[in-house]
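Tripartite tricarboxylate transporter substrate binding protein (Cupriavidus respiraculi), 345 aa
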Amino acid sequence: MFTQSLHLARTLVGQACTIMKARPARAGLVAAVALAGTAMAPAAHAEYPDRPIQLVLSFPPAGATDVLARAVGQRLSQVLQQPVVVENRPGAGGAIGLSYAAKAAPDGYTLYLAAVSNAAIAAATYSSQPASLAKDFVPIAGIGTVPHILVVPASLPVNSVPELVSYLKASPGKLNFASQGAGTLSHLESELFKLRTGVDVLHVPYKGSSFALPDLMAGRASMMFDSIPSALPHVKAGKLKLLAVASEQRLESLPEAKTMAEAGIKDFRADNLFGLVAPKGTPAPVVKKLAAAVKEALASPELGKTMEAQGVQIKYTASDEFGRMIGDELRTWSKVAQAAKVKID
C-alpha cells in the first residue's frame, strides 16, 4: 500500500512539473498568435490624401492647358500637403487622356483636368469615344476659362469684325480659315462664326497653333481663332491684328478688345471652360475635400495674376454648378457640329 501511494504521489508531482514547464511555452504561443493577428489585421484608414495625387490632362507639355495644370497643381499640393503630379496624355482629340483617367481607380488619387469645351466638341464630332466626360466622371470644381481671340494677318485690309465679314462675303468659297486641327475648339469657333455671319470660307486644319500661325501671318489664311498665349505675341509684334475676343465679357488683360457680341455677332460664346473631375464612384467625402482644396487654391491673388497674364480667367465654380455647365457645353457644341455638318471619323 505504501509503495503504491508513493508511486502515485511521484506521478502527480511529475505531471504538475510538466504543466508548469509548459505554461511559458503556451504563453509564448498565445503571444505569437496575437502578434500575427495584429499584423494580418487591416490597418486603420489614413486620412485622405496620404500619398501623391495624379492630375491627368489631354494636352502636351508647355501649352496653355499644361501651364494651367501645373500652376493649379502646385497650389493644390500646398493645400493638401501632398504632391500633385501632372500627367500629360495627349492624342486622339483628347480621348487618350480622358479614357486613361476614366479607367483609374475611383479613390481620389487620379484626377482629370477637363478642357470641357474641347471634350464637348470631340463628343459631338467623333463617331465613337472611349469615355464620356458626363457619364464616367463626377465634377469636383470649375477652375476658370481660357478665351480665344479672333486674329487676322496684318496685311489683310480689315480692322474690325464687320469689315472682316464684308471682306469674306466679297469672295465666297475662295478664302480660308486656319485652325489648331480638325475637331478642336479653334475649328468649331470658326464654324460657329460662319453660321452666325453667313460667310463662305474654307477650313484648313493644322497640327496646332505653331504650324498654323506662320501661314496666317504670311496671308495664306484669312482668319483664325487661337489661344491668347500663342497668338498675342504676334499681335504685339505687328504681324497679326486682334479683332475680338470669343468670351462673353472683355478681358482685364485686353481691355480694348471687343467681345464678339460687341462687334455685332450675336449669340456667339466660346469661353473654353476648364475644371477638375474624378472617376465615377469616387467617394463623396473625397470629392468634397478636393472641392474645398480647389477653392482655397484658386483664392490666391498671385495665382490669379499669373494666369491672367497667360490669358486665363481663374474662377472657382462649385461642383453642382460645374456639372450643369458641362451639360450646357455638351449641348451647345453638339448643335454647332450638327448645324455645320462637322463629323470626324
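The first strand starts at residue 53 and ends at 57. Residues 1-44 have pLDDT under 50 and may be disordered. ok done for today
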